[in-house]
Structure formats: structure tokens, C-alpha cells
Amino acid sequence: MGRGPTLVVSPLLALMRDQVVAAGASGLLAGSINSSNFDEWDQVLHRIEHDELDVLLVSPERLANPRFMERIGPLLGRAGLIVIDEAHCISDWGFDFRPDYQRLSRLLTESADIPVLATTATANARVSDDVSVQLGTETLVLRGSLARTSLRLSVVAGLGPLERFAWVDEAIGQIEGSGIVYVPTVADTTRLASFLASQGHAVAAYSGQLEPERRAVVEDDLRHNRLKAVVATSALGMGYDKPDLGFCIHVGSPDSPVAYYQQVGRAGRAIDHAEAILLPAETDERLWEYFATASIPVPATIDAIMAVLTEGERPMSAPALEASTGVRRGRLDATLKVMAVDGSVELGAEGWMATGVPYVFDEEKWSSITAVRAAEAALMRSYARGDGCLMEFLQVALDDPDPGPCGSCSVCTGELPPPGRSPSQGSVLAAAEFLRGQDVIIEPRKMWPSKIDGLRGRIVGADEGRALSFADDPGWSVAARSTAGPDKALPDEVVDGVVQVLARWRSRWAERPVAIVPMPSDRHHTLILDLADRLGAIGRLPVLDILGSSGEAPGRDASSRDRVTGLLARLSVDSSAPVPDGPVLLVDDSYRSGWTMTVAASLLRAAGVPAVLPLVVHQLP
């Protein structure tokens, strides 16, 4: 009594919205500061400074903002309580999900006289111990049972990509209530949601790429059962509150029992029965391996960043750092976040700068995290095989104090929810027909990277292009396997699919192509030339093998600047060949960063080709 307002650190917009509403229903005055309500920040801070709010909710990223911390400082001095929701993110388990959570341990040690409540529904003993170490020696840890009698766990193994889509289609038509279908990538949210909508289901896609306003609409529509299902990435997870959620289906396995239980725990909170169903995928292992290492810092990368920032006289933007260090953007951004948490760099209004604090690479720490992730992936492998009672398996994996067989999961009963072990052939054919009829549009790159001699500004190169398939496309897994395999002619069904892409694309052409130009390739020379020849024969177009290459190709992890520089030295146009007087199709096996196609198209345009239309078999994420 008599203490100041409560500060709640909360990780997700959906969670904040629900918490503000719940506080109001309890008679408390609450406000939030996050990325979606920038226009309200001054008003909210004014109210908290004048004791007009009982609760202030902030995202962990606000703690990295010096201006915000300067203004919130007086509040910390008189706060009655600090609440850290989803506290497992403080631990190294969540360092790459929300790295700014790890600033909390330092913040709290500076506010030692303020009581702290850290809450999470999903943390094993290792994570709990780590959180309590970071919060202080006087931390009291309380754990309860994780068993949920309302939740029926099932694993439906052995389905192929199209069968999984068809299974979900039939399942949500038979399972009562509304729910969430989790998928591993943003591309999968739109693919699966579009297919389910074509089958007559009221569904929506949800990911971190949605605008905040649209996310709020989707959350509300699901909460009020205007949607049968939301197809979502893990962005719809922690804290989303719908007590009567009837099902949670995973198309592909999360990489740890903690992550899996975190998501299925959305279902069955206030109803007697809810389904939690896992459809393991053959791509799970590859995704687990990628995410396990993608954000682990590399000493050479850290050294390159520190060298550039230390030598520079001014702060540097991320694109400028990419150009100066040669580190590709994704790796650069992940490393900067980790370094910022440890205080060796900071992001100001004008860009990144070194703080003067050296970054000490903790080999033991990162090796331990890698090992733990491998062990957690092994646990999910066992779960997907059904190596015992599924609920007991999760309880043991999360160090539940009282594990035991549930008697109701698919392993205990031998029964699966509808449609059972496999969907109907009609549903599989419907999925194949829908997915194989979708256009994959390749947007051309617009601007050259900085600091390349002779090139700057807007690119004159490729027009909008097309791909047969994108990422782990269930409709065209044969195309992905073909472009990842040995150098040989594509199967007839893949070539027929490319022809259908051209047939749909034709209505968008300002002018019909007059020739086909194959991309030179060290890896798939035969595949690309054969595809060009077969398309040329079908479309009665000449194949002009006028692009050449020499030297080594740039590495996949090279920065954009280094890739373009290397490609400019490697690729060339045969100056003795006649230049087509109309658009050309530029054919390649795959498309990842787009720089190879972009440089080749710009060289063709410089040689006099009026338009270049990229056409590839498979676009990689």
C-alpha cells in the first residue's frame, strides 16, 4: 500500500492489448508503450508521471532506448512492483527471440529495493534456474503442474507436403470450435490460408510482417469466432488470450518442447476438450539446424564490426556497416543485437556506434547454447515418433514436478482425431491443383549497394519475373529437389509446370519475348540449357547462349556489395552476338538474393536488350 505504479515488461502486442483490457476489467488504469502506438507515448508518459495510471506496460526494446530510459528513470525509483512477463526470455533460451530482455538483469540490480515478479507458463528447470540467477540471490521460484486434462495431444506422422495441407483442410471442417494452425514460415501462412479459404473455410494468415492494425483485427476476429482458424507463425503465441480455443495444429514441428508447449498451451483453457495436433514435416530437421545457429555470433564477424565502428568518426547505418564489413545483412543485424545487449555497441539516432566497452566472446556460453538446442531438437524428434505418452513426455521435458501418463493422447489411446491417419485422395488432389496454380512473383531489385565503382543509384536491369515454386512449396517439392540435386534435365512435370507459369504470365507482358537467354552456371549447366531448349521449342523462340562466366562465384555469405563486385568481374555478354530487338526470358535454376539475375539483366540491358524477364524454377527464401 502506498507504493507507486507497477511497471510490466511484456513481449508481444497481442499480449499487451489483452493485459490492458484485463486490467481495466479489474478496476485498474493501465496504459502501454510499444511500436504500434507511437502517437500516444507522450500522453501515456504524462499520465504515469502524474500518478494517473496504476500499470504501465512496455516492450523490452524500449529499455534499449536511452531517451525512453531517461524519462522512465523517475518511475523506476518509485515503482511499487516490476513484473516481467514471459520471463523465460531473460534466459539464454530466448536470447535471439528478444535480446533486449537480457537488459533486465542489469536494470533490476540497479533497482534492488523494488520487488520483482517474473512469470512464465513454460520454462524447464534449466531456464528457471538461469532466470533466478540473473534476477538475484533472493529469488523465490514456484512451479506448478503442467498437465492439462482438457488438452488431447496427437501426432499424425508420415504425411507428405500436400497431404498435410489436405489433412488440415479436412480436420478444421470436423473439429469443433475455432483455433490456430501453426506453420514455420511467413510464406506458409499465406499459402495454407489461401488454400483453406479456397476450400470454403473462414481463415486468415498472421505473421510478424502484418501491420499492427491488421494483426489486431485478426486477433479479434478469432477471439469472437468470426474465423474458424488463423494460420500463423510463432508471432501469434505468448499471451494471446482466447480461453475457448478449440484446437492447435502444427504443420511442422517446433524445435523444442518448450516452444511447442508454449503454443499448444493457447488451447483448452476454459473448455473441457481441445485438440493439440502435430503433423511432423520432412523439412523439420533442416529448419531446426538453421535456426539453431543463425543468430549465434561469430568471432570474425564481431571483430569486423568493432574494427569499422572503432575506426569510424561517425555513427554508421546498418547498410553502411554491411558495405564496410562485407557481412551479409541478416547475420550483421543478429550480431549487432547481441553486442548491444552486452554494451559494446549502441544504436543512436544517426546509426550504430562503439561504446568503448570491448566485446568478450564467451565460447563456453555459445557452445553450451548450441548443445542445448541440439538436445532439445532430439527431444522433439522423440515426441514426433510417439516414444511414449505425449503429455508425460512434455512434462518430463519441462521438468514438471509430477509427471505421469495422461491416458488420453494418441499414444495412450491409439486413436487420432479426424480425418485420422490420412486425408482423402480428393482433398490431396485439390491441394495439388490449388498450389500448382499459384504465381510466384519475383520483384526486381531497385537500388545498387553503396561503394561500388561505376555503379550507384537506381538499377536498370530486370523487370518483374516469375518462379515455379518458392521455399518449401508443397505443390512443387519435386522442383525444389531437382534444383538442389545433380546436374541433369528436369522431370517432364516440372517443365510442364514452367510452361503453365508462362501461360498465366503472358497476359501481363507488354510485349511477347523474342528469345530465351540461359544463365551460365557451374552447378546446373545441363539443367538450365535443357530447360531453355525445351521452352524455346514449345514457344518457337530462339535460344541465345550469349552470357558467359569466368572465375569463382561469390560466396553465399558475402555482403551485397561483395556479391555484386564479384559478379561484375565474373559475368559478361558476348559482344560478337546479335542483340535481340525485343524482350528476352532470362532463365535460371534458382533465385536467392537476386544479385546474379540482377547483374546479368543489367549487362544485357547495357548491351541493348530492351527488356529482361527473369524466369526461374525455384525461388529460395
In CATH, the architecture of the largest domain is 3-Layer(aba) Sandwich
**Strand order in space, largest sheet:** 6-11-10-7-9-8
In the CATH scheme, what's the topology name of the largest domain?
Rossmann fold
Using only C-alpha atoms, the radius of gyration works out to: 27 Å
Largest sheet descriptor: 6 strands, parallel
Relative helix content: 25-40%
User: Low-confidence parts lasting 5 or more residues at pLDDT below 50?
Assistant: none
Structural class: alpha/beta
What portion of residues belong to β-strands? 5-15%
The CATH homologous superfamily of the largest domain: P-loop containing nucleotide triphosphate hydrolases
Report the principal-axis shape: globular
Q: Please, how many domains?
A: 4
Number of helices: 22
In CATH, what is the class of the largest domain? Answer: Alpha Beta
- What is the number of E strands? 20
Provide mean pLDDT, rounded. 88
Distance between the termini: 54 Å
